[in-house]
């Protein structure tokens, strides 16, 4: 049985539980998994589906199933929010915290996004994992840390940080937009797509002629990520103006 089928089978079980008991929630899903779940339940009027990662803009989220005839789920009961403090002179990154959590034996689907750009870092996890992390996470990488619980209201909204690039493309095909985003030749972009190194909206896409819409998120293994922010207007040569948000260095 394929991994996607197993995932959707688990979601069907949760939906059935929600219909009987009012509410049920999955563990943390990747964006690609969340998209698959959305498509699977698109025509299910007997159960309401929403996604929540604990704060606005979260990438990893829990699928929350509700019986429409019941009340709202207790959102506060879905998450534990943790603050990870360390000395101002130390440097602590996302990878350090992720590695430390995995070393403690935490499964990746039991905790969500890690925000490590500012001090203190913050983390969202399953409620049953919160106390264990507080008691046992004392070091991340080479940095000593102390962990404490905070309320969901204290979590910051996640903001996208990217460099905006303006260009023109012959069309909104995947290979054309990928070429503009990463400064590649159209041929090289097509080779990356054919090699299975390009994701579109978190899912593998090997169709060079796939037409993109505004908001499409691209990722190319080894190069980074980019988002098609805006497309519209024609140049004198009949090319389409695009604005692309580029994450990291391109």
Helix content: 25-40%
Secondary-structure-derived class: alpha+beta
Identify the overall geometry.
globular
- In the CATH classification, which architecture of the largest domain applies? Roll
Q: Mind telling me the CATH class of the largest domain?
A: Alpha Beta
Poorly predicted parts: none
Tell me the CATH topology of the largest domain: Structural Genomics Hypothetical 15.5 Kd Protein In mrcA-pckA Intergenic Region, Chain A
Whole-number total of structural domains: 3
Strand order of the largest sheet: 10-15-14-13-11-12
Which whole number gives the mean pLDDT?
92
Strand content: 25-35%
Strand elements, count:
15
Give a summary of the structure in a few sentences.
This protein is an alpha+beta fold. The protein is built from six helices and 15 strands.
Any chance you could write out the topology, listing elements then pairs?
Layout: H1 3-21, E1 23-29, H2 31-40, E2 48-52, E3 61-66, E4 80-85, H3 94-103, E5 111-115, E6 121-125, H4 127-136, E7 139-140, E8 143-144, E9 146-150, E10 163-169, H5 174-182, H6 186-194, E11 198-200, E12 203-204, E13 217-220, E14 224-234, E15 240-247
Antiparallel strand pairs: 1-3, 2-3, 4-6, 4-9, 5-6, 7-8, 10-15, 11-12, 11-13, 13-14, 14-15
Q: Any overview of this molecule?
A:
The chain has 250 residues and is of the alpha+beta class. The chain folds into three domains: 3-71, Ribosomal Protein S8, Chain: A, domain 1, CATH 3.30.1370.50; 79-154, RRM (RNA recognition motif) domain (Alpha-Beta Plaits); 163-247, RNA-binding S4 domain (Structural Genomics Hypothetical 15.5 Kd Protein In mrcA-pckA Intergenic Region, Chain A, Roll). The chain contains six helices and 15 strands. β13 (217-220) and β14 form a beta hairpin. It is globular and about 60 Å long. The model has no long low-confidence stretch (mean pLDDT 92).
